[in-house]
């Protein structure tokens, strides 16, 4: 499958000033930009910056960023699922995972996450993919947000729905391990019936196990 990436950009006015939301950005662009020290959800900032550069260089990899002048203050990643996850077992070329989304605390509540997702979906080629995200409550910043697990889940669902993702049932053990965890997905309008059926099989791999 040939992966095409169409760059899009929009300006977002926030209480702290304007942000540029753009992407998919290239590795060269990412190398030139600073990476805010508050982006610590997944790794130390320097290592996460390098991870984004690597993802952007993958044929299917997509990085959408929010930047304040020359500093990245938020991002979302799309790439093939981790080989160790069930979602990679179907070896589907048209299934991508929203692997990470992060915005620094100072810009939370300013719809930055929603705009990152919306800009990602401005590319018509995204209609050729099934986009999934697996949400686990232990990845959420409950302490920093001041929200309980259920309010945070509602917030995540609202944000993901801005990118067209909706809740899907699954028997995945990790997702089923806590009722706040969930699978969300967006099935592009150009995705084949065969791929949708494969996705359904991945969602329910234990249906015949007793």
In terms of topology, how is this protein built?
Layout: E1 8-14, E2 17-23, H1 27-32, E3 34-35, H2 45-56, E4 62-68, E5 71-79, E6 95-103, H3 112-120, E7 130-135, H4 142-145, H5 149-162, E8 166-168, H6 173-176, E9 182-187, H7 193-203
Parallel strand pairs: 3-5, 6-7
Antiparallel strand pairs: 1-2, 2-4, 4-5, 5-6, 7-9, 8-9
Helix pairs in contact: 3-5
Describe it for me?
The chain is of the alpha+beta class and 210 residues long. The chain has one domain: 3-Layer(aba) Sandwich (Aminopeptidase). Helix content is 29%, strand content 27%. It contains seven helices and nine strands, in the order E-E-H-E-H-E-E-E-H-E-H-H-E-H-E-H. Strands 1, 2, 3, 4, 5, 6, 7, 8 and 9 form a nine-stranded mixed sheet that branches. It is globular, with a radius of gyration of 17 Å. GO terms for molecular function: acetoin dehydrogenase (NAD+) activity; acyltransferase activity, transferring groups other than amino-acyl groups.
Mean pLDDT over all positions: 94
Structural domains: how many: 1
User: Could you tell me the number of beta strands?
Assistant: 9
Number of helices: 7
User: Low-confidence parts, pLDDT < 50 over ≥5 residues?
Assistant: none
CATH topology: Aminopeptidase
Task: Name the structural class.
Answer: alpha+beta
Biggest pleated-sheet summary: 9 strands, mixed
Rounded radius of gyration (Å) = 17 Å
Order of helices and strands: EEHEHEEEHEHHEHEH
Provide the CATH architecture: 3-Layer(aba) Sandwich
Q: Which superfamily, in CATH terms, is the homologous superfamily?
A: Gcn5-related N-acetyltransferase (GNAT)
The geometry reads as: globular
Instruction: State the end-to-end CA separation.
Output: 37 Å
Strand content: 25-35%
CATH top level is Alpha Beta
Helix proportion? 25-40%
